[in-house]
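[09:14] KT: can someone run the structure on this one? pasting the chain below
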Amino acid sequence: MIPETVIVGEVANFVAYAFAPAVLVTPLGALSIIVSAVLAHFILSEKLHKLGILGCVMCIVGSVLIVIHAPQEHPITSVQEIWSMATQPAFLLYMASVTVLVFILVIHFAPQCGHTNVLVFTGICSLMGSLSVMSVKALGTSLKLTFEGKNQLIYPETWFFMLVVATCVITQMNYLNKALDTFNTAVVSPIYYVMFTTLTILASVIMFKDWDGQSGGTIVTEICGFIVVLSGTILLHSTKDFERSSSFRGNNYAPVSPSLSTRLCSGNGELLKYDEEEETRPEEVCLRRQEVY
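[09:31] RB: done, structure tokens below
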């Protein structure tokens, strides 16, 4: 059932980009984190910390601010119109910068410090993710126009956007899995969400001119709502990790490391040998050591 629900969620996300600007859709992805936390609290009996509740409230408040002040979707009549947006000098410069940064991270930084610095893998995912969202929006708009009776599949631009979507998503998922396999999820998720959302909004503002026609106060309010959502997301993930670590520390039957016990009871700092076959407890080893002296 879980894979089916994930597929349904991704399809709904794909459709959302076809009908709404990325500036609105991408930050609202934080609502899925709230739903996951609430369901885990009631179904999986995972305690939701008070700070986690505050993080959920912050995500909701920030999302409301973004929805109220979100820009209107500009009407698009053909995929060729999207292509002209994608080939404007400002967005071409953004794409070139992203491509160069991704190649540098993949070729130089990933082999050297990819497994020690969380920003390397998440940076690759976020940079490619911003391009994948722009391509998904272009492809979704093309399919929407096709279903409305304006066939866009006859244009090569539609198939080019489809190729870009496949390339970016495969690269993004590959390095996201590497990041999750290497680092703690509670560290990767908020960093990835912040970087991915920020870069996606930047790419959408450059390509689709989402903020054209909006007042400075409205844009500032959207940015404030976005910052509130990011803060709530980070707070929610950090409290999840705090609950895990605190429950582990509170475990009364956690065994004490024999090597640590024998190291502490040794008078001259010499590491005592622990024989598992004889099942000698560390306390007995300490007493025997003291009797020798």
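[09:33] KT: thanks! The mean pLDDT is 79.
[09:34] RB: yep, looked fine to me
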